[in-house]
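Example complex used in Figure S2.
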Amino acid sequence: MTKPYRDNLPISADGFMDQFMRLKRGSVSRRHFLGVTGLGLATAVFGRFPGAGQRAYAAGDLGTQMSIATWPNYHDPATFENFKAATGVAVEVNVFGSNEEMLAKMQAGATGWSLFVPTNYTISTYSQLGLIDELDLSQVPNFDPATQSARFTSEGKVDGKTYALPKNWGTTGFCVNTAKLKTPMQSWKDFFEVAQTEADGRAMVHDYQLTTIGSALVSLGFSFNSIKPEELAKAEELLIKVKPHLFAINSDYQPSMRSTDAWLTMCWTNDGAQLNRDMPELAYILGKDGGEIWTDFYAIPKSAPNKPAGYALLNYLMDPQNAVKEHIANGAPTTDSRVIALLPAEITSNKIVYPDEASLTPLEFGAAVTLTDPGRAELMARFKSA
Amino acid sequence: MRAFATAVYLFLYAPIALVVLFSFNSGRSASEFVGFSTQWYGRALSNTFLMEALQTSLIVAFVSATLAAVFGTMAAIGLERVGGRTRAVFDGLFAAAIVVPGVVIGISTLVALVQVFSVLNPALAALWPGQAPPQLGLGYGSIIAAHGMFTMSLVAMIVKARIASLGRDIVEASNDLYATPLTTFRRIVLPQIRPSILAGFLLAFTFSFDDFIIAFFVAGSNNTLPMYIFASIRRGVTPEINAVATMVLAASIVMIVIARFLMRDKKTAD
Amino acid sequence: MELTPKAKKTMVTAALIGPAAIWLFVFMVLPFFAILVFSVGERAPAGGYQPAFTFDQFANLGARAAAFVNTLTLAPIGAIACLLIAYPLAYYLAVKVDPRRRLLLVSLVVVPFWTSMLVRTYSWMYLLGARGIPHVLELIGIENVRLINTPGAVLLGIVYGYLPLMILPIFVSLEKLDRRLLEASADLGAKPISTFFNITLPLSLPGVMTGVALVTILLLGEYLIPQLLGGGKVFFIGNALVDLFLQSRNWPLGSAIAVTLVIVVVAVLLISMRIAWRFAGTRQIDLV
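Predicted assembly (944 residues):
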């Protein structure tokens, strides 16, 4: 096997053997699939479509398009236009509602993304499952580890290897329409109480196990990351009790908050900042009893069809001049001191974006185990289907 | 009775009227009318992602509907020539293809394709003579195949029903007059089943163009228009989407009128 | 070598049916087989699928009982609600309306199908949301009405989305009705109402059966309407499936539910064919 040839393989030699062995073990399906002669035709059809499996081969050849998987309202739309103007690569944006959904699409196979935005607690799982590659930092000269705040960025490294570079950090609190709700709220305990009383029919929780179950746990005095069955059972009891009073179970709460269909919602920093900027009566509150603090990263899938463009966009986004525009547009705090230096004072003094240290103290980073724990996944599903 | 009918039409058209109205909104939101403007049409036409999604949807719908019309019609004709048991098996398969929910088609096709790819891709890489073996993946092909599977069955059922209602005697008369089977088909059968093929094609096109759930699972990185709209609903819709929907509606009304006109022409000619 | 006419005929037949057969096999039979295999597997530790041979997933179907109950109640209720609105309109179109305007009015029933289902549903999200009908109600003094994200909103979306599918088959069966029967009935002194119940209604039953079966079957797999108008709170089997594949990533359980859903759909189809045969004297459910 020659070297360039191996580089073109979709997965490493180890990964290939692993896949192969797995197929051997699960050979029931494989035998049947292999036995199908008609697949030759399908092969010809699929292989020919551009975008279905195209890869750029020479480093430096960026191609004309790539796609990124990210969160809703998370980027300055101008970023991608400027990137296209600078490199000729058009960026297709796919948005997701939860890390689970991103992981599911990756596990299901070819996603076509060349860059994606996973949250801190998922990175170790992605690398364990062999879904992301160690980053080649020589291709990201704009990234400077010295200017990063280690508090937020440590989870990008697994076993000393860098798999992901930070985009921004943030918190998970709640957003209140203070024109509609008069009860003062300071904690997740308050959140769930008001959701059943004054905000009956007007409160939203995320369609996302980490924050919805986590916040319910916090309101009961448990850890945000608990996977203890008895604590989860209590959280489930609370969530099922609250469900009939909820407006929706949905991670896309911006439209409903703006239209005042909903008055109270679980909320991420960036959405809180955007909502508050446009409608000052929408306040953003961090739970005094706890909650989540997080960092979103950029990573490159192993199956990325256009890695050169993925690296190019990553490097472009690591440029403080570009990152600061992203920051101003999406409202989530940066991990990079070079970006802070470029920010206008009204952002650095915004308490939604950069809260006091004291209000961050009770918050916890999400733990990797919550991503794959079947108990939490099943609890969320029971809550939704109840 | 009349009042009731009017009320039902109002119910059917009020939301559509609202979509059209907001496409002319000068404000940013698709839910608060500020003033009249056509700016969103310009924005929609210059939004590369929206246009790409529209293009993907048009290609997928056109190719899948064409394949469905051709293969579905061929099958309907071919099944006239086989025994009752084979016909019953295919009737069952066509019916199954039509009643199996889209969400199941999407999920099962994804699961099956991913398994197939994970076997074929390494095999292909090992056998490929050149430096750059092709990679099979989800994309246009998978959406077209999944849509076509369903719509081909639709076409086959429609055309079969039409063939069943055709008089046998005219075909026999043609054969008696020493026309070759091909001539009989071209001159006698095809003209009579053409409207059903066209109807089947239009139905197939409409289904494919509007489908969200199958594409949601089997699409690769290309978004179809419904996928783009679904993502927009998550972010908060701008009147751009309304403008595209209005243009699609206008185009389809024109197409319906043309189709009606063509069919009426045929009828009077016959 | 000269082929016998019979061999030639067989080859032509095979060439005609072949593509459809391959397509159905690769993209329907094979995928169904794949989920069948998955449904006896296990959830991998990190989510997804790992091979096994167990019927645990089917034993665990009860975990989604609520979704099945929701779907199996709201689907027939939705179909019946459609029927109650569709029948009078179809009757009006087939019997009462001026024949010269009939084509136009029937076409108008179909046109909504040509706009995006998603956009139309979004339009309802707006109409039912705080700035739509509740806002109008506020102006006349009724405050804080919430319509969106309720079972009622989902039902409304269902009726809206599927009404044309109910109207068309009923219209076709009423249009085929022999007018002379109605005249004869009237000549024999029957009141219009008894003519309707003794002649018109029984003869239109095949259309009614087709419409109800079609709408019910399609509703069993619905995902978008509950998702968009139910706010993630009104959960259908379709929603449970999407959730199992994309959120909790329990693909074996998802596959087991998908297999069960297919069985339910086929059962509903067979039962309605049975009913159609018994009551309407036709075995045919015209799906297209």
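The radius of gyration of chain C is 24 Å. Residues 134 and 140 of chain C are 10 Å apart (CA to CA).
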